[in-house]
């Protein structure tokens, strides 16, 4: 059986191509998806199939030398070629094959075109002896990555025929010009984000209210059914109130990730990276560093792992250190609770400000770090190619939403559940009276750390909430529900302390899993650096905001 490693397609297309080729080849071949050239090292693939996106030729071909470094037998499959032709561009395939020294073919899963020919070429290359005759080998002996980039640019100059004027542009290309316009792109991006958050609050308010009412009715029913005891208090005041407070934000999570999925699948996320490219270069980073940062709005853990694709090691580590500044979905329930309660008439605006503060501070952080000996270097090249706009598929959108919902529900059933039980126990004992919190174990813990946080406007209960947020930020909401009985409006919070509290939640490190991922991907020293600098920054920014706000 011939083993084929497949690398290079966008995430949404890999499985479809592999499955189509596998169905045609039967048991004579086995196709395995490969996500990064490093995964080729030590794997005994007979041939590597690199799928090149015809709408992103230069960027795709820049991956080829890294594949050749790991594996000598490769075949290039030019995908989505029909989209290139629609723009009145064309590619001289025989000349491209001759200049780059790699067997090449066209493929299209959507049009069912070129797959048998691709299989034939793969069998032929698998039967050949390995060769080091690729022109790339001689080139890389003489130069560096910039030399190869110039070589790829030269190949495309000779093989790619461009449209003569703008009249051949498609409607999507004209839209693209507006979305990536230097003057219009950023305001459009901010307007889209405002609309997303407005929908998240407005549409999510109704099912959120239904869930909260349902939890309240169930609590009343259980109180009438059960005899008052520590067991009934644990189930009602601990588990039901704590878990229910977090579960109420599930509709908002679904709505938010519906829009994020649409932006990812349509290709608009790449446009946001293009828009931010100039800003990122002022920082000293590549525009592609913004992609992991955008992913961080979902979850910081996969966002840090996505930074693996950044080739420059210094940029890769610095991007990983910037990701925790992004407001992940775990922080979202905390924001929504306070924004709903204290900023009723400016919900979307306050929410955007939190996300914007995280981005701005990450940029300032990067500017400072770029001037240290660990990250000082020359700028990289700019983002100059964008993926084609695509119509999001309902199946992919549903899969993305379910992935986030499943993760959220898993946290509720594990971390949040246990955190709720522990907080209830610390609150209930030793007095066994929830009305006597001042003499509970929880009060002792809170009063021990509260002197550090009093200058930020936080009492001992708020301090405890921040401690329970260390394993998962959603636990802050369940802790608030247990300590304040689900009503924080009458608990000493003001709009100023609420905003100061949200800033602290934004800036101190998101969760233990994120630190563990940083430890694995960037090293122990940077993981501990993130712990200490994020705690200091959270305290400092919240202190400044609260103290200045108190004066005003």
Descriptive report:
The longest helix has 41 residues, at 185-225. Helices cover 64% and strands 6% of the residues. The protein contains 25 helices and 7 strands. Helix 7 packs across helix 8 (145-159). It folds into 2 domains: 2-167, 3-Layer(aba) Sandwich (Rossmann fold); 188-377 and 399-551, no CATH class. With 552 residues, it is mainly alpha-helical. It has helices spanning 14-25, 57-61, 64-70, 81-86, 93-100, 115-127, 135-142, 145-159, 171-179, 185-225, 230-247, 250-266, 268-283, 290-295, 300-306, 313-322, 332-342, 347-369, 394-428, 441-453, 460-468, 474-484, 495-507, 512-521, 524-551; strands spanning 2-7, 29-33, 47-53, 74-79, 90-91, 104-107, 160-161. The protein has a 5-stranded parallel β-sheet, with helices on both faces. Strands 5-7 form a two-stranded antiparallel ribbon. The mean pLDDT is 83.
Please compute the radius of gyration using only Cα atoms. 27 Å
Number of domains: 2
- The structural class is mainly alpha
Helix fraction by DSSP (H/I, runs of at least 4): 55-70%
Instruction: Determine the mean pLDDT.
Output: 83
Strand order of the largest sheet: 2-1-3-4-6
DSSP helix count?
Answer: 25
Shape: elongated
* Termini separation: 75 Å
| Spans of at least 5 consecutive residues with low confidence | none
Report the portion of residues in β strands: 5-15%
**Number of DSSP E strands:** 7
Give the biggest sheet.
5 strands, parallel
């Amino acid at each position: 059986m011939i083993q084929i490693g497949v690398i290079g397609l966008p995430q949404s297309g890999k499985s479809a191509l592999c499955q189509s080729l596998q169905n045609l080849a039967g048991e004579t071949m086995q196709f395995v998806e490969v996500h990064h050239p490093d995964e080729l090292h030590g794997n005994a693939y007979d041939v590597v199939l690199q799928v090149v996106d015809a709408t992103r030729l230069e960027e795709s071909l820049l991956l080829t030398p890294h594949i050749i470094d790991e594996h000598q037998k490769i075949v290039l499959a030019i995908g989505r070629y029909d989209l290139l032709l629609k723009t009145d561009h064309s590619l001289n395939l025989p000349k491209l094959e001759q200049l780059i020294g790699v067997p090449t073919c066209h493929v299209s899963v959507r049009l069912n075109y070129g797959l048998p020919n691709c299989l034939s070429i793969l069998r032929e290359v698998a039967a050949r002896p390995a060769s080091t005759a690729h022109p790339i080998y001689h080139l890389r002996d003489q130069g560096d990555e910039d030399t190869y980039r110039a070589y790829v640019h030269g190949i495309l100059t000779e093989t790619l025929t461009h449209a003569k004027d703008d009249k051949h542009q498609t409607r999507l290309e004209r839209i693209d010009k507006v979305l990536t316009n230097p003057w219009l792109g950023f305001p459009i991006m901010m307007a889209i984000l405002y609309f997303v958050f407005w929908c998240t609050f407005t549409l999510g308010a109704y099912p959120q209210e239904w869930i909260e009412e349902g939890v309240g009715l169930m609590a009343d029913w259980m109180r009438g059914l059960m005899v008052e005891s520590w067991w009934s208090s644990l189930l009602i005041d601990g588990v039901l109130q704590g878990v229910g407070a977090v579960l109420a934000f599930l509709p908002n999570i679904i709505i938010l990730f519906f829009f994020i999925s649409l932006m990812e699948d349509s290709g608009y996320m790449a446009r946001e990276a293009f828009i931010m490219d100039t800003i990122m270069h002022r920082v000293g980073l590549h525009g592609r560093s913004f992609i992991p940062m955008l992913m961080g709005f979902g979850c910081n853990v996969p966002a840090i792992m996505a930074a693996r694709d950044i080739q420059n090691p210094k940029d890769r580590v610095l991007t990983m250190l910037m990701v925790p500044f992004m407001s992940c979905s775990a922080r979202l329930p905390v924001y929504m609770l306070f924004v709903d309660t204290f900023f009723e008439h400016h919900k979307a605006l306050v929410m955007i400000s939190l996300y914007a503060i995280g981005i701005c501070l990450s940029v300032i952080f990067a500017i400072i770090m770029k001037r240290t000996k660990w990250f000082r270097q020359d700028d990289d090249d700019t983002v100059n190619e964008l993926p084609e706009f695509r119509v999001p598929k309902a199946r992919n959108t549903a899969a993305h939403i379910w992935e986030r919902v499943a993760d959220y529900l898993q946290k509720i059933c594990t971390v949040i559940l246990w955190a709720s039980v522990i907080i209830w126990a610390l609150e209930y004992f030793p007095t066994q009276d929830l009305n006597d919190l001042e003499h509970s174990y929880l009060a002792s813990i809170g009063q021990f750390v509260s002197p550090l946080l009093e200058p930020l406007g936080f009492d001992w209960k708020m301090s405890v909430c921040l401690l329970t947020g260390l394993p998962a930020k959603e636990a802050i909401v369940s802790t608030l529900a247990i300590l304040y009985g689900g009503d924080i409006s009458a608990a000493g919070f003001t709009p100023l302390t609420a905003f100061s509290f949200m800033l602290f939640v934004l800036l101190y490190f998101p969760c233990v899993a994120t630190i563990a991922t940083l430890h694995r991907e960037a090293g122990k020293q940077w993981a501990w650096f993130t712990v200490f600098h994020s705690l200091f920054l959270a305290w400092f920014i919240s202190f400044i905001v609260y103290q200045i706000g108190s004066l005003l």
